[in-house]
Design goal:
There is one protein chain. With 236 residues, the chain is an alpha+beta fold. It is built from six helices and eight strands, in the order βαααααβββββββα. 44% of the residues lie in helices and 29% in strands. The strands form two sheets. Strands 1, 2, 3, 4, 5 and 6 form a six-stranded antiparallel beta sheet that branches. Strands 7-8 form a two-stranded antiparallel sheet. The longest helix has 35 residues, at 201-235.
């Protein structure tokens, strides 16, 4: 099932400014925080050096710039999350997609490397591996896609055949060619599979429930119409 959505709904589901969940994701791990702190410190030092050489006319501007740059460790995640959102919002059209889980399997991915020296004095590179879930979903039209994401405990309940929901993006009005997909929601388990949380999840779940109710009403209306026709034929 594929239902086109309006541009307004698209922009509500993927906002321009990072959400709290997206900010937390881009905050990263302790090494990421330390890297941002180092960048901030280097920028502050450079600004102080520049300030010592410039005239007093632009000195305040340099200090304000240095203050903003020195807080990069704090606002950096907002910037990077907003840029990732912008990658999605550049597409002109989107749609609500529902299909099924076709396959699920686990792989290991190299996330980082460490260099160490063994007892013989030889340099050894150790790969740090992280388990990844590979979720393949598809629908009756033959469309399939696979999403790879970090493995979580809550993913254990996902099995083939379960309904899968997501947002698809395209530059074609008929959504004939899908350029990008969002994180995947498994409603029967209330579980998300994603590497990056693109969607406003509360709004997406609410929208999916409204669509489900609307389809149920349509089926009931169709059944009532068929029952009415059969009664009319019998009377005749």
């Amino acid at each position: 099932m594929l239902i086109p959505l309006t541009r307004q709904t698209f922009q509500e589901l993927i906002p321009a400014v990072a959400t709290g969940v997206q900010y937390k994701y881009c905050w990263g791990k302790p090494p990421d925080f330390l890297r941002r702190m180092l960048i901030s410190a280097v920028i502050v030092i450079l600004v102080l050096v520049v300030y010592s050489f410039v005239g007093s006319d632009i000195g305040p501007l340099v200090l304000i710039t240095g203050l903003i740059a020195g807080l990069y460790w704090l606002w950096g995640p907002i910037l990077w999350a907003s840029l990732r959102n912008a990658e999605c919002r550049k597409y002109q059209y989107c749609g609500f997609w529902q299909g099924r889980v076709l396959d699920i399997y686990i792989t290991d991915e190299v996330t980082s490397q460490e260099e160490t020296v063994n007892q013989k004095g030889q340099l050894v590179i150790i790969d740090n591996l992280e388990p990844r879930i590979n979720l393949e979903v598809g629908d009756k039209t033959g469309f399939t896609t696979t999403l790879r994401a970090p493995l979580r405990k809550e993913h254990q309940g996902i099995v083939p055949g379960q309904a899968a929901l997501m947002l698809i993006m395209s530059n074609q009005e008929d959504l004939g060619r899908i350029a990008k997909v969002s994180d995947i929601y498994i409603p029967s388990r209330d579980v998300w599979v994603s590497d990056y949380p693109y969607l406003r999840r509360d709004l997406f779940v609410e929208m999916s429930q409204q669509i489900k109710k609307g389809r149920k009403k349509d089926r009931e209306r169709d059944n009532d119409n068929r029952s009415t026709k059969r009664r009319s034929s019998a009377d005749y």
